[in-house]
Amino acid sequence: MITARAAATFEPVGRSVAAARTFVRDTLQGWGLTDIVDDAVVLTSELVTNAVVHAGTTADVECIRADTGVRVEVADRYPERELPVQSNGGHHFGSPDSEGGRGLLLCAALAARWGVEYTATHKQVWFQLDFPDRPAGTRAAGPALPASALPLTDARVRVAVVQVDSGALISTWNDDAQELFGYTAEQVIGKPLTDLAAWPHTPGTGTGVAEALRLSRWEGSYGIRGADGRVSPVYASHLRIRDAQGDPSTVCLLVRDHERAVLQSPLRAVAPDSGESAERGPASDAFEVFIGSPAPDDLDGLLQRTVERARDMLDGDAAYLLLATDDETELEVRASTGLPSARQRFARVPVEAGTGRYGSARMPAVHEDLSALPGAVPLLVNTGMRSVVTVPLKVEGRLTGSLGVAAEAPGRYSNEEALRLQFAADRIALAVERARLTELERLRRGSLSFLVEASDLLAGTLDRDQTLALMAQMTVPTLASWCAVYTVADQVSEPELSYVLHEDEDRIDGLKALLTKIDPPEQVPTGGARSWSGPYDAAHAAALRTSLRSLSLGDSARPSSGPGASLATASAVGGETVVLPLVARNRVIGMLTLGKPTDEHFRQENLELAEDLSRRAALALDNARLYSERTAISQSLQRSLLPPEQPEVPGVEVEVIYRAAGEGNEVGGDFYDLFPIRDGAYGFAIGDVCGTGPEAAAVTGLARHALRLLAREGFGGPAVLERLNAAILDEGARSRFLTLLYGELWPQHDGSAVLKVVCAGHPLPLRLRQDGSVEAAAEPQPLLGVMEDLELYEQTITLDPGDVLLCVTDGVTERREGTRMLGDEGLTDVLTTCTGLTAGAVAARVLRAVERFAAEPPSDDMAILAMRVPEPHDT
């Protein structure tokens, strides 16, 4: 039954992926389904990426909540039937590193069910995430129920009994197993059970059927591939035993998954009060006796209850529980009572024996007086505890943690208390390990979702400052309480403090001032987080000096600010501080510094996540640096191609407007120039090189410099352009066609101006007279860069007072809106309205007409050169 529904549509642009993730996250959190949010976000991200990025269509996302789970549907408008081929061995999706198929790969791994549906116009991929089941192994007596409320099964319930030996090979296969799966006993005995099992594993975890068979007891669901190749979901109950020869083996009871009620352990009943513990019979579960019922679902709650029960059981003053790392070399404090937990939480101690090491982790140990052996239990140093008993938590012989109870009086514990505590630890170890694996899986899925969003954000900018800000904002407060980013310009430069962020904005200035005064962390290219005591030492030294100075001044002379600011900064950086190198392209380009407030430590999972983030952020920061450097070089080279400051021409108004097409371009294929040739004579040019971008800009620079040089050598207009034509042809493959209007201008004493122009394939200059008439002021001649032998000639024009000469490139006349084009006639109509306007006003009106002609921005370079001889009454 559908109980809620939400839908949204996202456009085919890159930012829609992040918007879709936010939509799904907000929807599921609003429904209170936090347990499956991370899986849903990761799957939605992949499927929407396929739709809006790869397929290039809009994506319709719909979330549907039902009684048993949530279904998310992602539809696009690219109904091509591309689905990976299913082989006999199951689904095959190709390499996880390939661009295609990863969304379906994740669906198969994370979703309870998924599928692809096609219509004539749409393709829809859907997945379903079921609500989490109650933890396996809980027990309770159920009430009497009417027949209609009892679980429904087939008429004949079959229970497959499969026994596997110490090598996980099948040794027993009953008739019900043959009926359920189609194999005879002769076909399967002696083969590994794992060859038949289809474990619904999740990427990043090591749990599977092989691991489950080694546990002393296990209960849950997986699939068995039958003789017909189909996978049948089953519910299984495993019990590890010893056979007649004393060798370990496992008995597996299996039923159809929908008949799980036959095997599934009932829910745990509410435990009696502690006062009734003496009345418990021999059938009472030791785990329930120790931990109480019901057991907490979350790891932190389970561990906290464990230490409290252990303290009460041995009448101690304090207790603590540590969990081992995967390699069993370190123990991490996860719960304590009677100790400064804020100072100890997530702190780590080595397992091996030695000063400051946890030497009694693998075996039960009793310390009658810790004052006789200082440092034997590092967690209890300076806590006032004198005696302690510690026992290991082990699962199948592997160290998973350590449990300790301490007292302030010496000699409180003996071997008898150690045996009692070890018995309790043996009962709780498996539950703790199962809860730890569940938490680890949740954290890994959350980390995957976090990294997906972080990568999306970092890839969305090439601005250095914005990249630095994103790095800090992604770590605070998710991974750390404060963050500082140092950057390194080159191999010989010292690190520079580039960005500082604190979760409390009022602490940022004080933190920045502190970090500015101390030496930056050492540049170490090796990966991983390393501790840095610099901020802690400096902050506490500054706070101590401020406090002493404040006391020495006396109350009457005490400064109004007092030591409060220094103490606040010291508290903000008083916890653990770590430095992660930012390494990109085998070079250290900076350091990411993360810190915690007083007495707090980092979780190892968060440090691993920060290390992964630092690698991605380093590459994004280096890309932003390279982009900035190349942009600066490009702009510098482009500016060198622009003419210097425009000269003043006596008796003539001159206005130039230049627009280069393309983002970040200052120079393109169009160009202009106005320069003095000799006393009383000025050269001007406006041209258009075939194409745009750097290649066209190179010919632009050649043309502009050649024109100036040849004109000042005394060559006339035709000779200048003929020699420029030869220079362009000499460029060979780099040459470009060039249209050019070149002229020489002589202002006259009577207020007029004489121009001699050569129009080599360029749009003809237009002359606007005082009466409003417009006419072409030159005749067309061949363009440059095509033929070797050119015969060009110049034409003389006299501009009377009030006349305007307008010269443009084809970016003006070829301005388009659909099939319409501005053209020469449109430009003439605009110029006709410019009678009496100054040269600057004429150029501005032409530019405004070009921009308004079409809604889209201009896609071609554009240059406008307007010259006007002012009338005598103009001021």
List the topology elements.
Layout: E1 2-10, H1 15-30, H2 37-55, E2 59-66, E3 69-76, E4 86-87, E5 90-91, H3 102-110, E6 113-118, E7 123-130, E8 160-164, E9 170-173, H4 175-181, H5 185-188, E10 197-198, H6 209-214, E11 217-225, E12 231-242, E13 248-256, H7 286-291, H8 299-313, E14 318-324, E15 330-337, H9 341-344, E16 348-350, E17 365-367, E18 387-395, E19 398-407, H10 415-459, H11 464-475, E20 482-487, E21 496-502, H12 508-517, E22 530-531, H13 534-557, H14 564-572, E23 577-584, E24 587-595, H15 604-641, E25 653-659, E26 670-678, E27 681-689, H16 693-712, H17 717-729, E28 738-747, E29 753-760, E30 766-768, E31 774-776, E32 795-799, E33 804-808, H18 810-813, E34 816-817, E35 820-821, H19 823-832, H20 839-853, E36 862-868
Antiparallel strand pairs: 1-2, 2-3, 3-7, 4-5, 6-7, 8-9, 8-13, 10-11, 11-12, 12-13, 14-15, 14-19, 15-16, 17-18, 18-19, 20-21, 20-24, 22-23, 23-24, 25-36, 26-27, 27-28, 28-29, 29-32, 30-31, 30-33, 33-36, 34-35
Structure notes:
The chain has a six-stranded antiparallel β-sheet with strand order 9-8-13-12-11-10. A six-stranded antiparallel β-sheet has the order 16-15-14-19-18-17. A five-stranded antiparallel β-sheet has the order 1-2-3-7-6, covered by helices on one side. Helix 2 (37-55) packs antiparallel against helix 3 (102-110), helix 10 runs parallel beside helix 15 (604-641) and helix 11 (464-475) packs antiparallel against helix 15 (604-641). It has 875 residues and is an alpha+beta fold. The longest helix is centred in the middle third of the chain and has 45 residues, at 415-459.
